[in-house]
Structures are given as C-alpha cells and as structure tokens.
Give the backbone structure.
Amino acid sequence: MTVLEAIQKSAEFLGKKNVESPRLQAELLLAHVLKMPRMKLYLNFDRGLTPAETDTLREFIKRRGQREPLQHITGATSFCGHEIAVNRNVLVPRPETELLVELGGQFLQGGAGNPLPADRRAGDCAPRQVLDFCTGSGCIAIALAAKCPDAKIVATDISAEALALAKENAAQNQVAERIEFRLGDGFAALEDPGERRQAGARESSDMSPHAQFDLMVSNPPYIPSAEIETLEPEVRDFDPRAALDGGADGLAFYRLIAGQAGALLKPGGKVMVEFGDGQAGAIQKIFETEKWIVEAVKDDYSHRARILVARR
Ligand SMILES: C[S@@+](CC[C@H](N)C(=O)[O-])C[C@H]1O[C@@H](n2cnc3c(N)ncnc32)[C@H](O)[C@@H]1O
C-alpha cells in the first residue's frame, strides 16, 4: 500500500465512523507512524508502507475510529508551541486556552495597560508570582513559565495522576524549577501541610490565606454535570470526568474562585478565568456579586466570549 492509498483508505474508514475532518486525521496519524511532518506526506505519495508501518497505522486508525482522541494515540499535543504529553488522566489542552496564556503573559510582561517598573525593559517580565488553579497537564503553567522567565508559578490540581504528568511536562520543557505543583481540593492545595497540622490543634481560622499572587489563571471544569453525556465521545469517554464536571450549572468553580481568590492576590493582582460558550453573563455576575471589578471579557479566535479578567 502506498502513502496515498493509506490516506484514502484511512480517511474513508474514519469518515464512516463520524470522525470530524477524517482526511486530516488520517494524514496526522500516518505522519506520526512515518515520523515525518504531515506536509512531507505530499512529497511521498508513491512511497510504499512496510508491513510494520501498515500494522501500526491500522491499529491507530482503528482506535481513532472508536473515537479515541488523536492526541491520546500520539501521546502528545502542541500548546503555545510546547510539546505537552497527555494521557487519560488529563484534559487534552485546547487551542482556545492559548489565549489565557497570551493575556496572562501580557499582564506579566507589563503590556496592555500594566506598566513595568522603571528598571525593566519592555518584553521583560517583572518577577511575578502566579497561581495556575486546576493545572491538569500543566500546559498553562508551563507556557507562562516559558514566556516569562522571571515568573514563579504554583500549579494545583485535585488529581495526583494529573500532577505527575504535569511535572514530567514541566521537566521536558525545562521549566520545572519555577513551577511548584500542589495537590489538593480547591484552595486547600495552597495550605502548608505543617500549618494545616498546627491549625488542627488550634482554631482552623488561624490559617488566614495571604496575598501572595500577582496573577491567578484558571481553566476549571465548567460543563454542567447533566450535559457531559451529550458531549462528543472523544470528550465524554476520554477526558477525565473531574476535568469536565462543573457541578449542576457548570459554575461551581467560578463561585469558589470569586469567593476565595481575592484574599490570595497582591494589590493590583488579577484573576483570569476561562469559561464555556454561553457562560459569560452568569460568570460576570458571580464575580461582580463578590465585589470584583470585571475589566474585560475576551473573545476567543472564533469570536466566542471565553475569558474573564477581573481585579479587586
Ligand atoms: C478543564 S481541566 C483544565 C486543565 C488545564 N488547566 C487545561 O487548561 O488544559 C480542569 C482540571 O481541574 C482539576 N480539578 C477538578 N476538580 C478539582 C478540585 N476540586 N480542585 C482542584 N482541581 C480540580 C481536574 O483534575 C482537571 O485537571
């Protein structure tokens, strides 16, 4: 079988399985098997596949036909130009989340109305403390750390398995020394375990959170629980449920963030949260009710409101 025949047969099979963009998916999987950039396939249409390559491609196409995400099959995705390994324990990073990194990076670099201290040049990053709440694969923390060499990032998640992969991703992308990964449910991840033990012996109210972050970014779970069953199989069956489920109305994490993040921010600090299509109004209301000043609601590249920027 030639490269061209393999693409045609695979695309036809994937099309019958209702996979979106079947030809592109077939090409990406074949390029992965042949370890060549997709565009190079076009210069190799007449090249024959070896029996081993044919077997591997067949296996991959079968899995994709069962609606396993392409990124789970190849084991990685590209996020803000960084290779991020993925598996069943983490949400596959989405392209629209790159906008959160862009906005966070602009803020840390003193852009867009955030002047830098006088001793720093434009393009430099002031030393900044960042919280990436619900980090999953670590994609946001890693991309921000790479963009802003002075930033120190605390990245939290409730999933130990997700954090294990996030740590590997940080090491692979050479930013591990500037990201501290913390395991825990919501803001409990920020409590010092020593402090937690001592406070247990005293009053728990002794553990007042302190203003330590210049920026908090988060892409939390935001799908209403009952809607998860209606999602495409790639998401419903392969992204971890904990990465999707935002409670009955999908807004549980925004209530948590709006209620508690204020105490963690330094003066002038900002919160930037990603949310789902159609949630902008409800989320803006949640933040305003908790006395935040909503500075902006930004659209993603397909003109859907996607990120809220707020300060106290
Ligand atoms: C939508 S995913 C986002 C992952 C990553 N930040 C991204 O943008 O691709 C949400 C993450 O929140 C984590 N999570 C769910 N419930 C949590 C909780 N109660 N406390 C902390 N993290 C939680 C999940 O494990 C998942 O990794």
